[in-house]
Amino acid sequence: MKTVGILALQGDFEAHAKAIEKAGGRAIEVRTREEMSRCDGLILPGGESSTMLKLLEYENLLDPLRAFGERKPIYGTCAGAILLAKEVTHPAQLSLGLMDIDVERNGYGRQIDSRIAKLDLNGDGTFEAVFIRAPIIRRVGGDVRVLAKYNGDPVWAEQGRHMVTTFHPELSDDGRVHRRFLEKL
Ligand code: GLN
Fold it and tell me: Which candidate, 83, 177, 68, places its Cα nearest to that of 130?
């Protein structure tokens, strides 16, 4: 059985652990380099990316995380997608650059910042997606495969071993996103 580490510095890591277990993986919470080294893949959960970034720097986990991503799969949800991006705007902040995407934080604005939307999965049915102060993916590189869009913008994408969603599948009763990540390990 594959072990998926959930970065547990901040944000909704518990729901991801449950979703991974339900999808057939083993989930462990990751707060140290040593815990990271026991994982076949990692999930960066939703939360507040600027806070997560500060905690990663404080715990000296930023470089180990980048090194992990150079060898093994990482899946970033919402704030986690912001951390994986190449360029971040609104406001600009440091990121890992492991996926060739650019994101705008809080791209949907304040009034309509959270919603549930039905996504069309290109012939694979629909997915009920929970968006919470989500970023908008403004650019995807040529190697990036878009798996779902909302309002014309990519909301689920992958590039090689890495994957991002700007919505929160750990809050829906639909295991397809987590199962797809397990298949990458
Ligand atoms: N708005 C948050 C950020 O910019 C992301 C929100 C989320 O992860 N649900 O980091």
Answer: 177
Mutate to test the pocket of ligand 1, among 43, 44, 49, 171 (most ligand atoms within 8 A of CB): 49
Number of domains in the chain: 1
Atom of ligand 1 nearest to the CA of 105: 4
Nearest ligand 1 atom to alpha carbon 79 = 8
Residue 88 CB neighbours (<10 A): 23
Which residue range is the domain that position 80 belongs to? 3-183
Question: Looking at the annotation, which residues are catalytic?
Answer: 78, 168, 170
Tell me: the pLDDT tens digits for 94-147?
A: 999 999 999 999 998 865 678 999 998 877 899 999 999 999 999 999 999 999
| Number of continuous H segments (helices) and E segments (strands) in the chain | 6, 12
Domain CATH number, residue 115: 3.40.50.880
Q: Is 2 exposed, middle or buried (0-12, 13-18, 19+ CB in 10 A)?
A: middle
DSSP SS3 for 15: helix
The predicted model scores a pTM of 0.97
